[in-house]
Each structure stands twice: as C-alpha cells, then as structure tokens.
Design goal:
Layout lengths: L1 H22 L16 E12 L3 E2 L11 E15 L2 E13 L11 E19 L2 E20 L2 E21 L4 E12 L2 E2 L7 E3 L1 E12 L18 H10 L7 E13 L4 E8 L2 E5 L4 E15 L6 E5 L2 E9 L6 E10 L11 E12 L4 E15 L7 E12 L4 E5 L3 E4 L8 E15 L2 E14 L7 E11 L3
Antiparallel strand pairs: 1-3, 1-11, 2-10, 3-4, 4-5, 5-6, 6-7, 7-8, 8-11, 9-10, 12-13, 12-26, 13-15, 14-15, 15-16, 15-17, 17-18, 18-19, 19-20, 20-21, 21-22, 21-23, 22-24, 23-24, 24-25, 25-26
Amino acid sequence: MKPFLGSVALLAVCVSVTARAADMPVKAPPLPSPAYNWSGFYLGVNLGGAWTNGSLNIPGNNLYGGTTEFIGGVQAGYNFQAGHFLFGVEGDFDGATFGHPALPTPTLGTVRQNWIGTIAGRVGLVEDRWLVYGKFGGGWVQSNASLNFPGVIWQGSNTSSGWLAGVGIEYGFKSNWTLKLEYDYIGLGSWTSPTVPQIPLNRDLQMVKFGANYKFERGLPDAVAPTRTGHDPSEDEDLAKKSQNPIADLVSVPFQSNTNFNAGPFNRTQEVLNIQPVIPLRINADWNVISRTIMPVISQPSPFFNNSTNGIGDITQQFFFTPTHPGALIWGLGPVFTVPSATDPILGQGKVLFGPTAVFLTTPGHWVIGVLVNNQWSVGGDPLRQSVNQFLAQPFVNYNMAHGWFLTSSPVITSNWLAAPGQQWTVPIGGGIGRIFKLGDQPVSAYISGYYNVVRPTGTPNWQLRAELSLLFPER
C-alpha cells in the first residue's frame, strides 16, 4: 500500500511541476524590424548642378561650348509600393543661375537657362530603406540667347520641350524623411534664331540633383525613445571623437568658414563657407555608407579687377563604405564627384569631376589621428574649360581634454597635377583649439584654427583662418 501511495504522490508532483512549467512564460524570438513603407504623397526640395554641351553654329565662334549652372527648386510626387517594386509619378521645378560667359573675352553668342520643369513616371526596386529607381517623361527649359557679330545683333527667349530620362537612389533617413541623389538628361530640339543668316542652337541638358523629401505617410511605426538617466562626463569625449571622425555613425551639419588672406594680384581676402552635412546610411548589420556633401558659398577676388564675385561654387559629394564594427584601424572607401554648380564661372571649374576617396584613422586614448585623401579627374562639363586632375589630402590630429575641450590640426594639402612645375602644391601648417558644448539641448562642436601655406602657387593666399560650428545629432 505504501509503495502505491508513494507512486501516486510522485505522479501528482510530476503533474504539478509539468502544469507549472506549462504556465511559465516562454521567451519569444525577437520580432523582425518593420520594413520601410515608401507609399504615399511627398514634397521636397533639391539643389545641384546642370550643364549643356550644346553649340552655336556661328562661323569663327570658338568661345561658346555650352553652359554650367547652379539649379535649385522643389519637387512633389506620389509613390505606390507593391512588395519590392515601386511605381510613382513626380514633377519638379528648378530655377537656374549663371551670370555670364566663362571667359572675359566677348563672345559672338551666349545662351543661358532660366528655369527647368519636368514631369515623369518613376519605376524602382525597394530594399527596406533603400530605393533605386529610373524615371521617364518630359522636360521644359526656358532659355535666353544673344548673338552679336557683324551684320547680326539679336536677343531672344524660348521655351523648349524634350524627353527626360533619369536614374536615382533614395534612402529613408527618418520615418517621414528621405534623401536622394539623381541624374537626369533632357534631350531638347534645336532652336533656330529668326535672323539672316539663321543660327541653329543645338542643345542637351544634364543635371545632378541632391534632394530631401517629406513623406506625408510615415515610413515606420512610432517608436518609444529610451529614457536617459543623468549625464556621464565620458559622453562628452565620446561625442567629440565621433565629431572628429569623418565616417562616424553620427549625423552632423558643419558650417566651416575659411578666410584666406592676400589672394590674387590685389591681395584681397577670399571667403569660403563650406556647408557640409554628414549622414550615415545603413546598408545592413555589417556595413554603412557615409554621405558627406560639401556646398561652398564663396566670395572670390577677381583675377582681373579689384573686386570680388559672390555666390555658390561647385558641389562635391563623397560616399564612404565602412564596416559597422571596425578594429583598431577605422577605414572607409568610396567614390567622390563634383558637379559644375557654380553661380558664376569664376566660382567653379565648369567640369564634372570623378575619382576615388578614402579615410583611415585610429582613436587611441584621448587621440583621434587619421587622414582623408582623394583624387578627381574631369569627365564632362564645358569643353572650353581647362581639364582637371587634382589631389587632396587632409591629415587630422585631435587631442581631447576635460570638459569637452580639444586641440586640433587638420591642414588641407592639395595638388593641381596639370599646373606648371613649382605651381602644383599647396601645403599648410597650423592648428587650433575647440570645444564640445550645448546650445540649449543641441550638442555643438566648435573650433578655431590658423594655417600658413609654406608651399603655394603664385598669387594664392598665404594665410588661412578657419572657424567651424557643427550641429551634432547623436542617437538618443
């Protein structure tokens, strides 16, 4: 009897334990992150550069090879996403700015674009936050032209239509915001002047645009931000190191003022304000691509007269592919290109440039030490402007101290490989001091430094004062 009762008791215990185990919560596998939703209406802005390779068929006219110009405007559209496919329609309108011919010598004829409008369908492939697309449709360009040669003096305007083809890549940066890079080609018909003799203008138009869109339909569901507790002083140095790393996983918007003294034949001051948004774009768990755009706002002394020209220069775009979990050596490799977006010929080179770029750095202790290098060659643009083959190296050394202070040196060394011997290199030396701090709740990095050009081409500045204020947007 006792063995029987013991068996029953043991069975009851096992059943009880089994029942309790069945009631215990089971740890579910983590849910996958929701995919980005591209559908819906959007509005946005864009800026960039445009160029034409047209020609005025005037006998003896050797000084017109097309135009380059800065463009900027707005776009609007609607996307419909079906799985990994996207279909949509988009229209945009851009103004174009170009002051006068590229050469000081009078030309027999000139052409300038005033505005550009397009409407096109978009077809693309979606992979979460990434969209690669093509667009096809029509474009309209409003142009002014002038002729001034023996027997013919004429000015006129014309709005021409043509076909549009383009390609682009877009990234869902935030739930309601996307960033894009796009190339467009508009094939325009010939424009013939009502003069005797008639002068045909053969044109095309190529554009590179950088844009941002606001989506009215959220790309991701709302997320609850983590709660922060207190302030860790070590966070200041971590943020300083990230702000000094060109390929850190940190959104930042630097405003860098470069004041160059004793430029040109009249020893005037050149001012270049570089607006340089840096945005990390995630490819997958192992790789990021860091987007770094440089838009210069320039006050340029004239090489011919004792005055200066003000406007926007050529825009440069860099992409660095970098591992998300690097070792002691942090690195990034990718392409760099420059579009002819200057609002005046004296402010830019009038060429499309392309080449490789790389960053290598290490962060031992309180130090951030590295170098950024690139080389660009001209691959398009105004055929009458000089070819370009230029090199840039920017070594940087930063030492971070208490309370957000840091010492910095980051001279920009350049070489124009096509210049005459002895006129190729610019080599500065110098440094400065800076600090990480907050304006209200906004983290900011600021520094001031000075550099002397120990090697420089004739007529170029000998001193530079550099000041930078960077808005930092760390993940919260």
